[in-house]
User: Which sequence fits this backbone?
């Protein structure tokens, strides 16, 4: 009986190679036909404000990155491959809130406070339901909002899992547990920078104060005196209320299910004007517009906060934050929501969405969230 030679059999690696080539071909078709791709941002989140990318912008971006490394390099996180642990609640000790809200001395090693950031947004994210009118902002519906603290373990995931097929309640839990540590860590960074600026000012370090001012986009760095620059830095370098940062991430990313969040860690719908820096929308309002992508969730959060702290559209937010920063954190978040009408094109509707998301999901309870050691 005739048998086939072993040499006539198709090797397994041949079919493996065929499958790989087919997958590459499918990806090429998707990119060509639908503009679907993920390009990591190449130079951090410092981006010049001019609309279109130019060689001059690249030089300015490199200058800002150099300044950051000179003044305060960004924190390096240890990425976890495990799901984040459940949040833990405990009662606040007497006077603990007041201690957390107090302004540190210039040479104090403790950190404190609240902050925010900007960018045009609202594209290709699942729409969030909003009531026809702004929901009540009565904080009595948030039980013990000022009497409990949530201890958040410092576990950091680089990107979210695919949440599209996850049940709603579980999706919300995973999203908040995954994003919350990044928001808290980014706020810690801002408060530590705020402390360093105070130290530099008290030590008479004019050169460093001017560098800080340049890093945070203050106009007239060489024309204003140090006192004026310091005052403006205290307005800009401050933390963002956690409920606000969570609510905007929820709206802009559709609880982490948007294409931009899944492919580019884009939680806040920030725009860029070069295809090398993000993901092109299927129906962009501008041919050069892309949604800025990031190498990690943390980079997206830092970018959002830097944007709110520097963009002219959020001057009112920064002023109001200064006025109310000594009060309870949940009150500060409530006061700042109306200042974000310029964050999206549907200004007033966007404000109603923010109120609705915060209230229906009781996000005010995260006002007292604190990072705990991962160990």
Assistant:
């Amino acid at each position: 009986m005739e048998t086939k030679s072993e040499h006539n059999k198709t090797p397994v690696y041949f079919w493996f190679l065929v499958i790989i080539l087919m997958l590459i071909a499918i990806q090429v078709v998707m990119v060509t036909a639908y503009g679907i791709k993920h390009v990591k941002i190449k130079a951090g989140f410092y981006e010049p404000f001019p609309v279109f990318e130019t060689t001059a912008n690249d030089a300015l971006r490199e200058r800002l990155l150099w300044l950051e490394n000179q003044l305060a390099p960004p924190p390096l996180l240890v990425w976890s491959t495990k799901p984040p642990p459940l949040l833990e609640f405990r009662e606040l000790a007497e006077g603990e809130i007041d201690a957390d809200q107090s302004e540190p001395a210039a040479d104090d090693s403790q950190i404190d406070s609240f902050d925010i950031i900007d960018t045009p947004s609202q594209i290709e994210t699942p729409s969030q339901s909003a009531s026809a009118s702004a929901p009540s902002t009565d904080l009595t519906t948030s039980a013990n909002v000022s009497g409990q603290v949530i201890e958040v373990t410092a576990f950091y995931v680089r990107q979210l899992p695919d949440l599209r097929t996850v049940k709603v309640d579980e999706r919300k839990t995973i999203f908040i547990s995954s994003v919350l540590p990044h928001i808290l860590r980014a706020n810690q960074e801002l408060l530590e920078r705020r402390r360093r600026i105070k130290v530099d000012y008290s030590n008479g370090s004019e050169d460093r104060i001017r560098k800080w001012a340049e890093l945070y986009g203050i106009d007239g760095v060489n024309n204003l005196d140090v006192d004026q620059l310091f005052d403006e830095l205290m307005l800009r370098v401050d933390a963002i209320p956690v409920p606000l940062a969570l609510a905007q991430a929820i709206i802009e990313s559709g609880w982490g299910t948007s294409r931009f969040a899944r492919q580019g860690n884009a939680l806040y719908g920030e725009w860029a004007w070069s295809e090398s820096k993000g993901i092109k929308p299927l129906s962009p309002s501008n041919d050069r517009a892309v949604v800025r992508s990031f190498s990690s969730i943390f980079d997206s959060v830092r970018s959002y906060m830097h944007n709110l702290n520097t963009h002219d559209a959020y001057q009112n937010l920064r002023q109001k934050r200064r006025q109310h920063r000594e009060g309870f954190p949940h009150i500060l978040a409530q006061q700042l929501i109306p200042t974000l009408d310029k964050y999206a094109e549907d200004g007033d509707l966007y404000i109603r969405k923010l109120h609705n998301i915060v209230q229906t999901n009781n996000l005010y309870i995260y006002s007292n969230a604190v990072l705990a050691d991962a160990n």
Remarks:
- The beta strands are 88-91, 148-153, 271-272, 278-279, 290-292, 370-372.
- Confidence is low (pLDDT under 50) at residues 33-44, 97-144.
- The chain has two domains: 10-37, 40-372.
